[in-house]
Design brief:
Blueprint: E1 5-10, H1 15-25, E2 31-34, H2 36-42, H3 45-53, E3 58-65, H4 69-79, E4 83-87, H5 92-99, E5 104-109, H6 115-123, E6 128-132, H7 135-139, H8 146-158, E7 161-165, E8 183-186, H9 188-191, H10 196-211
Parallel strand pairs: 1-2, 1-8, 2-3, 3-4, 4-5, 5-6, 6-7, 7-8
Helix pairs in contact: 1-3, 4-5
The protein binds ribulose-5-phosphate (5RP).
Ribulose-5-phosphate (5RP) binds near residues 36 and 165.
Length: about 210
């Protein structure tokens, strides 16, 4: 089992503060993400700036694309993104069209989806998913538990690279011990901290303690 990567989600509402935090933690994390909130506020410039700052890192664009997969993915790719997210409710043609334009499409698992659909994504050549607890569900009292671990294990056994996100903190990661996770995605637990570099390092230490 590979050691999970750490992805920093820039969900800032303005580009200068996103780039300030990305500049601090970019060399501590493995993947940088232009988050949905940042993309809605600042557009493709956010991807372009992350790419310019980190030419050798994996850059993810997280538009949670629902339609016009080819156009959205081509725009993300030409701005510098390697991976792009597509919402699980999108049609298979949207996913396939997007997959032609970026290195990897990552299907965002929100709300209702089935393992039958997941088989169809695999058959279509899409091999990455993001298992997501939404920040609104978490704020309404949700949390991580065995129900999530079962689904994550099953997705990984099917052959997906499974990233995990939503309210993660370093101390949450032990729940996932023994699970084949591609990347842990953290936003506020890094950017919202007085010392984002220490926060990102604490994530990395915990990942390497558990998976090495
Ligand atoms: C929200 C997202 C976030 O980028 C991701 O879940 C990280 O958020 P958090 O601040 O909870 O770590 O995609 O839809």
């Amino acid at each position: 089992m590979a050691v999970p990567k750490l992805q920093f989600a820039c969900d800032h509402t303005d580009l200068p503060s996103a780039l300030a935090d990305a500049g601090k933690v970019g060399n501590v994390v493995d993947i940088l993400e232009a988050g949905t909130i940042l993309l809605l506020q600042e557009g493709r410039k956010a991807i372009q700036c992350l790419r310019a700052m980190f030419p050798d890192k994996i850059i993810v664009a997280d538009p949670k694309c629902a339609d016009a997969g080819a156009v959205v993915a081509a725009n993300c790719s030409s701005a510098g993104a390697d991976f792009m997210t597509v919402i699980c409710a999108a049609s298979l043609p949207t996913m396939q069209a997007a997959a032609k334009e970026v290195k990897e499409v990552q299907i965002e698992l929100f709300g209702d989806w089935t393992f039958e659909q997941a088989e169809a994504w695999l058959d279509a050549g899409i091999s990455q998913v993001i298992y997501h607890q939404s920040r609104d569900a978490l704020a309404a009292g949700g949390g991580w538990g065995e129900k999530d671990l079962e689904k994550i294990r099953r997705l990984a056994d099917m052959g997906f690279g499974v990233s995990v996100t939503g309210g993660l903190k370093p101390e949450t990661l032990r729940l996932f011990e023994g699970v084949n996770v591609y990347a842990f995605i953290a936003g506020r637990a890094i950017s919202g901290q007085p010392d984002p570099v220490k926060a990102a390092s604490d994530f990395q230490k915990e990942i390497h303690r558990i998976w090495n």
